[in-house]
What we know:
Largest sheet of chain A: 7 strands, antiparallel
Order of helices and strands of chain A: HHEEHEEEEHEEHEHEHEEEHEHEEEH
Strand order of the largest sheet of chain A: 4-3-7-1-2-6-5
Strand order of the largest sheet of chain B: 6-2-1-10-20
Strand content of chain A: 25-35%
CATH superfamily of the largest domain in chain B: FAD/NAD(P)-binding domain
Oligomer: heterodimer
Helix content of chain A: 25-40%
CATH topology of the largest domain in chain A: Rossmann fold
CATH topology of the largest domain in chain B: FAD/NAD(P)-binding domain
Number of helices of chain A: 10
Strand content of chain B: 15-25%
Helix content of chain B: 25-40%
Number of strands of chain A: 17
CATH superfamily of the largest domain in chain A: Nucleotide-binding domain of ferredoxin-NADP reductase (FNR) module
Shape of chain A: globular
Shape of chain B: globular
Number of domains of chain B: 2
CATH architecture of the largest domain in chain B: 3-Layer(bba) Sandwich
Distance between the termini of chain A: 33 Å
Number of strands of chain B: 20
Radius of gyration of chain B: 20 Å
Distance between the termini of chain B: 9 Å
Structural class of chain A: alpha+beta
Amino acid sequence: xxxxxxxxxxxxxxxxxxxxxxxxxxxxxxxxxxxxxxxxxxxxxxxxxxxxxxxxxxxxxxxxxxxxxxxxxxxxxxxxxxxxxxxxxxxxxxxxxxxxxxxxxxxxxxxxxxxxxxxxxxxxxxxxxxxxxxxxxxxxxxxxxxxxxxxxxxxxxxxxxxxxxxxxxxxxxxxxxxxxxxxxxxxxxxxxxxxxxxxxxxxxxxxxxxxxxxxxxxxxxxxxxxxxxxxxxxxxxxxxxxxxxxxxxxxxxxxxxxxxxxxxxxxxxxxxxxxxxxxxxxxxxxxxxxxxxxxxxxxxxxxxxxxxxxxxxxxxxxx
Amino acid sequence: xxxxxxxxxxxxxxxxxxxxxxxxxxxxxxxxxxxxxxxxxxxxxxxxxxxxxxxxxxxxxxxxxxxxxxxxxxxxxxxxxxxxxxxxxxxxxxxxxxxxxxxxxxxxxxxxxxxxxxxxxxxxxxxxxxxxxxxxxxxxxxxxxxxxxxxxxxxxxxxxxxxxxxxxxxxxxxxxxxxxxxxxxxxxxxxxxxxxxxxxxxxxxxxxxxxxxxxxxxxxxxxxxxxxxxxxxxxxxxxxxxxxxxxxxxxxxxxxxxxxxxxxxxxxxxxxxxxxxxxxxxxxxxxxxxxxxxxxxxxxxxxxxxxxxxxxxxxxxxxxxxxxxxxxxxxxxxxxxxxxxxxxxxxxxxxxxxxxxxxxxxxxxxxxxxxxxxxxxxxxxxxxxxxxxxxxxxxxxxxxxxxxxxxxxxxxxxxxxxxxxxxxx
Lengths: 319, 425
């Protein structure tokens, strides 16, 4: 169980895990994560634990990649770095002189527990990300952390051992690819990476690929919302000639979804995970920004709720 | 055909055995690392009407587990307040014995495997999901997950997790399978609108008791010690599951039974007060570990069912043990389990489901408890062959007898001798 359980959602009967804290009077504990959240809530005098803290992190290094991506290496406490090592970890970052509405969710690209640093890559998109571009080496960045739900189907990554895995990453998706890549490598998996640099010319993660990937295939993965023939042929070849047990994708939802369907078509036993692209404002399940209701009418708070990609993509309502 | 049994307590083991005997392939799933669940801290068999029920189930052909408890008994035919001719099985020997028995029958036993959800197709259960996400299909399912815990219930309706033998923090919580399949659970009440009831006994480490107490336990199986007057708490009897032990004698005395450990016949008892009693100065709890503070909460998860133990509203789910009503005890679990496992196979074959006749105590209790679940008063009681309301009924109806030949004859007359031994497939 994540450390901040029980959170504010428990106080209002909206807990995403515990039936007792979600308006029911009896246990229906099919989401058990190792401790009883209701027990923790009671021992905390029926109050939520404190939410995530804001940390002032010094920028140790800033670099720019092809005009539109900035990569920061930040100094952080030993504790915070250790809490952000898991695949799927993310933070909210903003400039110290801006308000909390500037909090922007950014995946962890890398952590260094020896030097206590975290690395994040940011694509300059709108006012929140552009506000961060003003910062330079030596400045402070405000970081709210830790958050963990950056990957849907993360247990498939955590359980993969001694197997062959395929990672597909496109554009800025190359940044959140690094923690799963490292994790899979550490667990003795062989990793093949299909890389689509577009809309950029080059990759900013070459050094990681060299170290952790057994093979890197560059290609155009998607065109007008469909997987390209080139990519499809590569997939067929990889799946036929390798005993792939897991496919992980870090891309826009359209590719995350198309690839999920393609893999399911080719071999049902291959597990699938992908990055969580939900828009987020608070990360605490409160703002409502990341909620999604599919046609099963179940409300999902994607900043926190861990589930398989298919339960997010399938049965989606148009509006 | 394949039967999946969810829950490896006495009723689950019993269901697995009868389903196997009837010809099914059987897989049993148990969340902890041991079979028998609370049976690992139980031990009392054949007291009062349980004697009759045990002999009836033997005559019906499902005496396998009764023979095992008989064989592993530490004491036979002992009396203690309100109870006659009790047999006490050794809780330190019974679990491996049952495990080996199931293994020899070629029943697939999956330990440390927790079932958390089901996949449905209409009113049929297609398969089950394990906590690790694995999915397994079968033709018929028997739910024997019991009604004890998990931690949230023990906290909300009791004094919190007392670290009982079910070890929810370690092996994960019980999940009500019928509820997951869309059937609302019925709940027992211990008094007007107070839900659940405390488990009724604890276990003390025998070695922690005085030499005199140990000697008497070993020799006679029972020790009765007087509680200091200032500590007598009659109110506590109301909290108990086991109404057959909710007698004045049990409030005024400490009653210990030798089941390998010293079984303390009370829900919980503060350790400092317990240690004031002569012979218990160094007493130590071993189940629940926090027996000084509380005990597990039960009866919050009963499935609505027919007298053939099919869950109402689902085509292929059966239930037994506490899941099937406000039953107390191993014998009751074994009896209901046997019927549920057997009927699982009949259900698959499209045969009429077996209902045990009310002229036998084992049939009568199943029907009687079902009737009682319909009334609010009925839901505040618990039912056992061993005492209180149901044993009184057994005596009144002439169902209670110690005459084994009479029982055999009765079952024979009903044409049910060895019915559970019949191979159906």
